[in-house]
Design a protein that fits this description.
By secondary structure, the protein is an alpha/beta fold. It is built from 9 helices and 12 strands.
Length: 297
């Protein structure tokens, strides 16, 4: 890594997200990070884990925020829901963002709720003009409620819809164009979906407008044998494989300097393992900056 987040001398807003490699903040590592302030460029939290008004978890995040730039990544905004937003949820998120001043806020191109029921999954959308209208309306309303722009993340997918008429990369680009939001480009999701559906992952990345991308995610995935087919599952339970690192290099060559976040949500290892993967990601960023991209195992 290069240089750790500097101590805040005033507003949290003085700590934007740098174009460096960060990691997701996970509960087993919170006290270690508070006590030892390890060399981490920035941290990302799941927004819905921090919607309380007070308590120990919020005090811990306050302490961490003094030392590190912070990104808030949501999993329950349900941008694809026809019924629109839960206004209470929007208000809770706005309160969180106003309190901690994250450098970036984001959520997923998916739906998670229907009829007031939260389904605890990031469910896929058909890529149609109707779905595009719905998600753009919801992104517009969320950005207005938050008083700031947001990023939307491309999904991993395991099924396609006969009704879909728009390629995913065009769908993502159109959301950004119509709403002014940014794109959180998940490279592992592109790799997983390209394997499952047979499209060209590098062509997907090349079709995304570089100036719309505000963050990159990388992660590990699992392989599942289903009859004669092998399905890749985005499970965030391991380090990225070589092909995902190669795809990250392709993305960085297209996008230029961009914050890169290593996600690891299952079978969470020691903090040193996560920071070592972030070091590898930082090496890829450094190589991209010098025009000397090279795969690092």
């Amino acid at each position: 890594m290069t240089e750790t987040g500097a101590k805040s001398s005033g507003s949290f807003a003085e700590l934007p997200i740098p174009a460096q490699a960060g990691i997701g903040l996970r509960h087993p590592h919170v006290l270690e990070i508070i006590e030892h302030t390890p060399d981490i460029a920035w941290l990302e939290v799941h927004s819905e884990n921090y919607l309380a008004a007070g308590g120990a978890r919020m005090r811990q995040l306050e302490a961490i925020r003094q030392d590190y730039p912070l990104s808030c990544h949501g999993v329950a905004l349900s941008l694809g829901s026809v019924g629109g937003h839960d206004q209470t949820h929007l208000a809770q998120l706005r309160s969180l963002f106003d309190r901690f001043e994250p450098g970036l806020v984001s959520d997923h191109v998916s739906w998670t709720t229907t009829g007031g029921t939260y389904l605890n999954d990031l469910l896929p959308l058909p890529y149609t003009e109707e779905a595009l209208d719905v998600i753009c309306r919801n992104v517009d309303q969320a950005q207005e409620a938050f008083g700031r722009p947001m990023l939307v993340e491309n999904p991993s997918s395991y099924v396609t819809f006969h009704a879909s008429t728009i390629p995913e990369w065009v769908f993502m680009s159109e959301i950004a164009r119509r709403t002014g939001c940014g794109i959180l480009l998940d490279v592992n999701n592109i790799f997983v979906s390209s394997h499952n559906h047979g499209f060209d992952a590098t062509a997907y990345i090349d079709a995304i407008p570089a100036d719309a991308v505000g963050e990159i995610h990388i992660a590990g995935h699992a392989r599942r044998e289903m009859g004669a087919a092998t399905i890749l599952i985005d499970d965030h339970s391991s380090a990225p494989i070589d092909q995902v690192w190669d795809l990250l290099d392709h993305a960085l060559a297209h996008l230029g300097a961009t914050p890169v976040l290593m996600e690891w949500d299952g079978d969470i290892p020691e903090l040193s393992v996560l920071t070592a993967v972030a070091e590898t990601a930082q090496h890829h960023l450094d190589q991209a900056a010098t025009g000397k991209l090279a795969h690092v195992a």
